[in-house]
Amino acid sequence: MGAKVTERLYHCLMSSMPLWTNHLNLLIEAAAVLAFALSGLLAAARKSLDAVGVFTVTFLAAFGGGTLRDLLLDQRPFFWVEHVHWLWVLMGLCMTAMLFMRHRHFEPTERAMQWPDALGLGLFAAAGVSKALHTGSPALVAVLMGVVTGVFGGVLRDVVCNEIPSAFRDHKPYAICAFVGGWAYVGWWWITGSAGQALMVCVTVTFGLRALALWRNWSLPAWKA
Amino acid sequence: MGAKVTERLYHCLMSSMPLWTNHLNLLIEAAAVLAFALSGLLAAARKSLDAVGVFTVTFLAAFGGGTLRDLLLDQRPFFWVEHVHWLWVLMGLCMTAMLFMRHRHFEPTERAMQWPDALGLGLFAAAGVSKALHTGSPALVAVLMGVVTGVFGGVLRDVVCNEIPSAFRDHKPYAICAFVGGWAYVGWWWITGSAGQALMVCVTVTFGLRALALWRNWSLPAWKA
Amino acid sequence: MGAKVTERLYHCLMSSMPLWTNHLNLLIEAAAVLAFALSGLLAAARKSLDAVGVFTVTFLAAFGGGTLRDLLLDQRPFFWVEHVHWLWVLMGLCMTAMLFMRHRHFEPTERAMQWPDALGLGLFAAAGVSKALHTGSPALVAVLMGVVTGVFGGVLRDVVCNEIPSAFRDHKPYAICAFVGGWAYVGWWWITGSAGQALMVCVTVTFGLRALALWRNWSLPAWKA
What we know:
The structure is a homotrimer.
Chain A: H1 2-46, H2 51-73, H3 79-82, H4 85-100, H5 106-134, H6 139-160, H7 166-169, H8 175-192, H9 195-216
Helix pairs in contact in A: 1-2, 1-4, 1-5, 1-6, 2-4, 2-6, 5-6, 5-8, 5-9, 6-8, 8-9
């Protein structure tokens, strides 16, 4: 009888696990996408773009990196074609922001988004490396695809806003964190053979490095004059 | 005997119809492509680009949107690979313009091109929605592909000319017209099942809205300060 | 006996030929890629980009044109995926340059790179035309793909650096040389049927024209005011 209860409990736990992790996954994914989207929204607001511009720049910031990666790897469907609901969410976000956001909210918003943004960088990089390795890319190319996934949404956002991409000129470690995290993925995967663990390692290393860089205010070395 | 004459007349009409509509189709297509190309030509002239820049920007304005759509949908061949003669036409247009166009002709040219441009927006959007639906895209993605086809030629033109795309910042309804027209396509297609009719509806709605917007001088709502 | 020596000599020569030409090919390829990469490096230095920006712009200048061509032609793998060692070389180049290059070295470097750059233009254009013809592109499209391969690395470099691409506004024959060279490829190939010879003709014509343009300081005709 006791064994039966344990068994039932175990069964119950196991069958609710996927739901739990699903919810957690969804929450993490949402935090990451929204952080990236918000960076686009703020950039568009700073340039006083109209509704079309705001949506486009927000979309590029959120999904531009992954879309570029899939174009380069010749993979379809894109994330936003498979998860169309995200397009509706972004549209709603843009509408709401244009109606309610005030300029004086920009800076606090940006500071508040730093941590979900760092999480997004880790998740996007890990997803990029994983997808590239699965399509048979060499290690270095896979790592660079991780960087592209995490960073080039912001690059496209800045190019459309007619700025030199901040990822290329602010001398803060951002892409570098994803680069190191990508090698952590590849290394862990080579040693243990577990892609699932490698994914977690990549997210942790990338997020950890980025958090350290923000906290200690690290800078990249600049050109000698 | 009378029946035979009627039959012959009918037959004659039917067999000449394709020719008629072909000519009309060609005329409309030419007006649309040339209107888009001219917008690129004028932008290139304003920046005093050289012959290479003029051709590239003209090409991007005319075919950049459709090319980007086909890249995203993974469709080949591109319109300008299937209809190479258009490349020759654009080259001839650029040559002629560089030899004969004067700056004081710019503004009247631009105003005169507004109507063929609105027609082009409708046609390009309809073609984009149709192609995306045929490749199995979800409705919203198909509508956005219509917008990309109609609008992103101008976006690429402005990015290369080092400007924030005017479609993103002039607060005039342009992409929005194509967006509404795209939904008209999808709606009509869902209700009647006729892709041919849906195409006409899309062109009419997009063109009509754009014409209204030009005529009534509509503006999109801006950011609150 | 004498015949045997001659035969052996001939044999020896023949079997060492591939090695010789391989070495020569490698040297020419390296000169071309490095010249293009250096143009990116200098542009990045002028904008004081950080390490990430320097590598990206250098990469785009070297491989952006060929990558865009392969995206348009739907060809994989990219050159830099097949020859990953080039990515390491570019990374090493960027590191070294950021540590050792001084601004006063920029102008002499640029002048010294003009000749390998002209060679690169010829080689990239020839490779582009050849690849496009092999995938069944019409002649004009193939020639334009040659131009894209040779010129659009620089275009992407300038777009990311937030400049109007110099290839579009400096009124110097650059893309035009590749355009003429591309037609030389197509013409020679049509007449003789030899793709190998056509390749050499294309490189020679493109390089020759570019060298002439540099030497005689040719300019493209500008817009009439």
